Amino acid sequence: MKGRLAHAPEPDRYAVFGNPVAHSRSPGIHAEFARMTGETLEYQSIESPLDGFACCVRTFMAGGGRGCNVTTPFKLQALAIADECRPHAAMAGAANCLKFEDGRIIAENFDGIGLVNDIRRNLGYEIAGRNVLLLGAGGAVRGAILPFLEARPARVAIANRCADEALSLKAAFANLGAFEASGFDDVEGAPFDLVVNATSASLFGQLPAIPARLFHHDTLAYDLVYGKGLTPFMSFALTSGAGRAVDGVGMVVEQAAEAFAWWRGVRPETGTVIQSLQASLPQIG
Ligand code: ATR
Hints:
- By secondary structure, the chain is an alpha/beta fold.
- It folds into two domains: 12-109, Rossmann fold (3-Layer(aba) Sandwich), CATH 3.40.50; 112-249, NAD(P)-binding Rossmann-like Domain (Rossmann fold, 3-Layer(aba) Sandwich), CATH 3.40.50.720.
- The protein contains ten helices and twelve strands.
- The chain has helices at residues 26-37, 53-62, 75-80, 87-92, 111-122, 139-150, 163-172, 232-239, 249-264, 271-279, and strands at residues 12-18, 41-47, 65-70, 84-85, 97-101, 104-108, 131-135, 155-159, 180-182, 194-197, 220-223, 244-246.
- The strands form two sheets. It has a six-stranded mixed β-sheet with strand order 2-1-3-5-6-4, with helices on both faces. The chain has a six-stranded parallel β-sheet with strand order 9-8-7-10-11-12, with helices on both faces.
- Helix 1 (26-37) crosses helix 9 and helix 5 (111-122) packs across helix 6.
- The longest helix has 16 residues, at 249-264.
- The model has no long low-confidence stretch (mean pLDDT 95).
- 2'-monophosphoadenosine-5'-diphosphate is lined by residues 136-140, 160-162, 165, 199-201, 206, 208.
């Protein structure tokens, strides 16, 4: 071996693409997952130009990238550039995770799976046999319908500010299983055991115009946003009698864990990562 230098292998490269992307917690979460599992990888944030997402991803691939997360506003484009699309991404009409294999791009969406995993594993709330209400009819709800139906609730209802959007979803996904659709005021069968705010209202500090009758003493009210403290939705749910209100910090870590497992073949433990992320954010209540 005289005269020969030994080099450590290059770490596998991953990234999160967004615009803006500086706020993303994904680099910290994946660095911690890598440390915990002993996986050698590098994970960075990449702010793609708004009109250059596909080019940016392909440059990253050509430079040895193995996969990426995708955040706002590129989730629809991420699906469009994929050579292969997994069922949850197809259902959501958007991808939040890509894997690069033999020059091909495979698209997945772990947002809905992360949500269901957080509710069941971390919050200890069994969905099977429960009455579930999803608020909203945008991409977040589209991504959640299949994971929720797979969790075998007694019933799933979708309610949206614009009832027609909810009815369109019901028509589009009728083949998946039975669920109800309505506007906020004409939701039938209230109260619900689980009410998920999958509207974007909390991002703007707004409360969806929902009735108090949706909640009972054992309702889990779940807001998909995180890092906003006590949102108007969480506050309204609690004053309307809900037993518990939580935000989406656990969902963020759970969807990241699914991505990590998909890329690396090993699923990291999430509890401590959720705790430390939670501690770094504005506190709820
Ligand atoms: P996302 O991809 O995050 O789901 P989206 O596709 O833009 O975002 O969808 C936003 C959802 O939030 C919609 O269901 C929207 O309701 P409308 O279809 O009636 O527009 C809902 N939404 C946004 N702001 C809201 C508010 N202040 N009150 C109630 N619903 C709101």
